[in-house]
């Protein structure tokens, strides 16, 4: 069975579509939803350590990430000598968000995409033009920098429960596709 890891953002591993994705993928993919400390007041070093403690540093890993989890996933890949990484990034951003200055420590410095491209074999970035939290243009830039598949939807918001995302079939489809 294939293995994947999910890094949430400023929510919890049990919020939004994360439990649904774990359950929906379980026939083909074992998805571990990570525990991150103080998700509503995150600290970059504490999150980096928590991710290091829960994701093995090995070639061929698959990471699903949402929101702040996306930059956290990119930081994880950047900090380790690994290859053939597969990424599914939803609601991604890599620059400061004016409404959330407390998250600036995650985005400074920006990722070295030239280095990341040597490590990432497949990636998909999903964003929505009506995302009120992470400007979709940042996700488009990330997809371009990673040479990733981009799915830019007209509607979806930030892909939260409040946006109607208790289930997320598109994420399941893309996760399965990354494993092929």
Give a description of the structure:
With 180 residues, the protein is α/β, with parallel strands linked by helices. It is 36% helix and 20% strand. Strands 2-1-3-4-5-6 form a six-stranded parallel β-sheet, with helices on both faces. Helix 2 crosses helix 3. The model has no long low-confidence stretch (mean pLDDT 97).
What does the secondary structure layout of this molecule look like, with pairings?
Layout: E1 2-7, H1 18-25, E2 29-33, H2 44-54, E3 62-66, H3 68-79, E4 85-90, H4 104-107, H5 113-119, E5 120-128, H6 136-146, E6 149-153, H7 169-179
Parallel strand pairs: 1-2, 1-3, 3-4, 4-5, 5-6
List keywords for this structure.
about 180 residues; alpha/beta; globular
Shape: globular
Structural class: alpha/beta
Written as H for each helix and E for each strand, in order along the chain, the element string is EHEHEHEHHEHEH
Number of helices: 7
Separation of the first and last Cα atoms: 12 Å
Physical arrangement of strands within the biggest beta sheet: 2-1-3-4-5-6
The main sheet comes to: 6 strands, parallel
Task: Give the strand content.
Answer: 15-25%
Helix content: 25-40%
Q: Low-confidence parts, pLDDT < 50 over ≥5 residues? A: none
**pLDDT averaged over residues:** 97
How many β-strands, per DSSP?
6
Compute the CA-based radius of gyration: 14 Å
């Amino acid at each position: 069975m294939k293995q994947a890891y999910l890094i949430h953002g400023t929510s919890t591993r049990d919020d939004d579509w994360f439990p649904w994705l774990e359950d929906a993928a379980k026939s083909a993919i074992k998805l571990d939803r990570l525990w991150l400390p103080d998700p509503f007041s995150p600290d970059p070093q504490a999150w980096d350590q928590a991710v290091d403690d829960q994701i093995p540093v090995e070639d061929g890993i698959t990471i699903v990430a949402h929101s702040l989890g996306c930059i956290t996933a990119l930081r994880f890949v950047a900090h380790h000598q690994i290859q053939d990484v597969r990424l599914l990034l939803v609601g991604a951003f890599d620059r400061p968000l004016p409404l959330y200055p407390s998250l600036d420590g995650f985005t400074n410095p920006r990722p070295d995409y030239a280095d990341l491209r040597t490590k990432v074999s497949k990636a998909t970035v999903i964003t929505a033009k009506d995302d009120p939290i992470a400007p979709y243009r940042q996700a488009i830039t990330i997809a371009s920098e990673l040479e990733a598949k981009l799915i830019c939807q007209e509607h979806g918001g930030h892909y939260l429960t409040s946006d109607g995302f208790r289930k997320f079939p598109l994420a399941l489809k893309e996760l399965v596709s990354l494993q092929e």
